[in-house]
Design goal:
By secondary structure, the protein is mainly α. The chain folds into two domains: about 55 residues, Homeodomain-like (Arc Repressor Mutant, subunit A), CATH 1.10.10.60; about 150 residues, Tetracycline Repressor, domain 2. About 75% of the residues lie in helices and about 0% in strands. Helix 6 packs across helix 8.
């Protein structure tokens, strides 16, 4: 019983540190947030933070890994419901916008990592964070698209990301969370038009080996 209670306390303390760090990183940025800031806001101690994570950098890595895994799992489940390329694009944009409204702190933290200044964050970690969500979009587009070249699917994925980026930047820089309900459909129509036209596409790098 005592061991179980201790384990629960440890788990609670660890999650409080994660939630506090997430909020402070979202508000101030990684570099501007100190270990002292985190433990003060979390009502714990620096030794506790170092016990669970070893360093502020390791705390950041664990936080990105945990939050982005949940984000990607939800995105994949949502896109699995799409039956055609238009729905994939529309659902992706709506997912991004809805997530910013539903979980503003987590969204600001993750999107700040993806789109904001690197702030001494490991480049490999940022790349993996950005790529997994793109892999999910690209894989689903490929699954529901017939008669379209791989290069055009890759280009469509990049255009989709580019079109949603202004909304993300408005959210990050101005706190805007409310967007027109027509925006997902408008962006989806533009991307789908591009997938079916005869214009050339740029050669973008492919995203891994997506099954």
């Amino acid at each position: 019983m005592a061991r179980a209670e201790a384990a629960q306390r440890n788990g609670n303390t660890r999650e409080v540190i994660l939630e506090t760090a997430e909020r402070l990183f979202a508000e101030r940025g990684f570099v501007a947030t100190s270990v002292r800031d985190i433990v003060r806001e979390a009502s714990t101690s620096a030794p506790s933070l170092y016990h669970f994570f070893g360093s502020k950098e390791n705390l950041l890595v664990d936080l990105i890994t945990d939050r982005h895994a949940e984000y990607c799992d939800e995105l994949e489940a949502d896109l699995d419901l799409a039956k055609n390329p238009f729905e994939v694009c529309q659902r992706f944009v709506k997912f991004v916008l809805t997530n910013m409204t539903r979980r503003p702190i987590t969204a600001k933290f993750l999107l700040g990592i993806m789109f904001g200044p690197r702030q001494n964050i490991p480049e490999a970690l940022v790349g993996e964070t950005l790529m997994r969500s793109q892999e999910i979009v690209q894989a689903r587009l490929r699954e529901v698209t017939v008669g379209v070249s791989e290069s055009r699917i890759v280009f469509a994925r990049m255009m989709l990301l580019g079109m949603v980026t202004p909304a993300v930047l408005l959210f990050l820089t101005s706190g805007v969370q409310s967007f027109s309900p027509k925006l997902p459909g408008c962006i989806a129509h533009r991307v789908i038009d591009m997938m079916g036209d005869s214009h050339p596409v740029c050669a973008w790098p492919t995203v891994g080996e997506v099954a």
